[in-house]
Amino acid sequence: MGFTAYFKCSEGCSTLFNILDTIYRCPNCNSLLSIYHDINALKTVSGNEWKQLFDSRYMKTEWPYGSGVWGKKEFVLPNIENSNIVSLYEGGTNLFWAERLGNIIGLNDLWVKQCGNSHTGSFKDLGMTVLVSNVKQKIANGGKIKAVICASTGDTSASLAAYCAAADIPAVVILPKSKISNAQLIQPLSNAAYTISLNTDFDGCMNIIKKLSEDERFYLANSINSLRIEGQKTLSIELTQQFDWDVPDWVIVPGGNLGNISAIGIGFKLMFDIGMINKLPRLICAQSANANPLYTSYINGFKEFKPIIAKETSATAIQIGNPVSYKKAINVIKEFDGIVEEVNEDELVDAVGIADKTGLFTCPQTGIALGALIKSVNKGIIKPNDRTIVISTANGLKFTDFKTSFHENTIGNVKINNHRMLPIEIDTDYTTILNSILDRFN
């Protein structure tokens, strides 16, 4: 139907740029870019017709529309050729009705969107399929890209490595030494990414990546690149679709580099603008108290934003003191009447312990979001009958080091852990075993 997408300055400059240009910031004001869609063109199809189209594709087998991202291709990158799409059937992740957890904390309509049930185990796949597909299209058009590059606290590198391996495109990832889990480290290595470990934090790795990206032979895959945000915004659409197009009251998102909270807001706003939904949810961005620059800005009315040096947190994937998408995140928080909450390490551990005992297997970043949920319920901000969605960003199996430390009670700076569990070692005598079980459940 002639739909197309362009790069455009996120701060209001009017110039449009070709989606296949290698450009990350506005050349006029140095702001991050967004993906621009012609809303009037999209409105030529009614909101109900879009819903019917997306429902007809959802989780089906017609390439590439069965993907949770590419089933919404017209809203993402309509001008990419299907033959250049690199998809690993991302999206379509479980919306878990957390009935028992809700009962414990006082909510009747609590859900956890398990984005970690994806190909590489995190929500990053939603954005990476779009970025790597765009790179494949650029190469098909004659682009001379040597490698796609990223700095990472773990999940981005895993996703980039997998999608580049599927596309036969070289990948380079730079990681902070000893600051990601072994499970996360092994993923890019297994997918043959050129993996560099630096004795610095994420922000230090990002500084190196920014310099490398000035060379057009190296294409930047971090969320500075708005193509990533474009894929991640489909999370909002899929959430709503899974509720038969009803909009939840609250969505709670862990915040590190702040691309995901920005993307989720952009997705809801697009649906609202073209008439697919008639209200917007409220958003909560949850930050670790040890890496909380957005929270600090929020409690001061967003009068200014100051990067910080992030302190150590179990939520390593959001241990970021200088998030690149902070302006986009602030705009979204304001527009959605949103809240920013901080969660300390004790609150993180307590939230993970409670959630896991109800059938989840929670990564530490999701623990931050659950901690913010519990605080918001206790403050009376979230009401008992509010439909509330917690975004679980990664699979707990990627954080077995954290899980082991949790149950061995060796997490630093955590005063109390009431939820640790260890195996019971007893003799191989039936009566002894029986009595042990009976004693446990009396």
Structure characterization notes:
The protein has helices at residues 39-42, 47-57, 99-105, 124-140, 155-167, 182-190, 202-212, 226-232, 234-242, 259-273, 293-299, 326-335, 345-356, 364-378, 400-408, 430-441, and strands at 5-9, 16-18, 33-37, 95-97, 110-114, 147-151, 171-176, 194-198, 218-220, 250-254, 282-288, 339-343, 388-392. It has 442 residues and is an alpha/beta fold. The strands form 3 sheets. The protein has a 6-stranded mixed sheet, with helices on both faces. Strands 8-7-6-9 form a 4-stranded parallel sheet, sandwiched between helices. A hairpin with a 6-residue loop joins strand 1 and strand 2 (16-18). Helix 4 runs parallel beside helix 5 and helix 10 packs across helix 12. It is globular and about 75 Å long. The model has no long low-confidence stretch (mean pLDDT 95).
Task: Produce a short descriptive summary.
With 442 residues, this protein is α/β, with parallel strands linked by helices. 38% of the residues lie in helices and 14% in strands.
CATH-level-2 architecture of one domain: 3-Layer(aba) Sandwich
Instruction: Tell the overall outline.
Output: globular
Kindly state the percentage of residues in helix: 25-40%
Radius of gyration: 22 Å
How is the main sheet built?
Answer: 6 strands, mixed
Number of helices: 16
Q: What is the count of β-strands?
A: 13
Which class do the helix and strand fractions yield? alpha/beta
Low-confidence stretches: none
Reading the helices and strands in chain order gives EEEHHEHEHEHEHEHEHHEHEHHEHHEHH
User: What integer is the average pLDDT?
Assistant: 95
CATH topology of one domain: Rossmann fold
The separation of the N and C termini measures: 67 Å
Strand content: 5-15%
The order of strands across the largest sheet is 4-5-13-10-11-12
CATH class of one domain, anyone? Alpha Beta
Assembly type: single chain
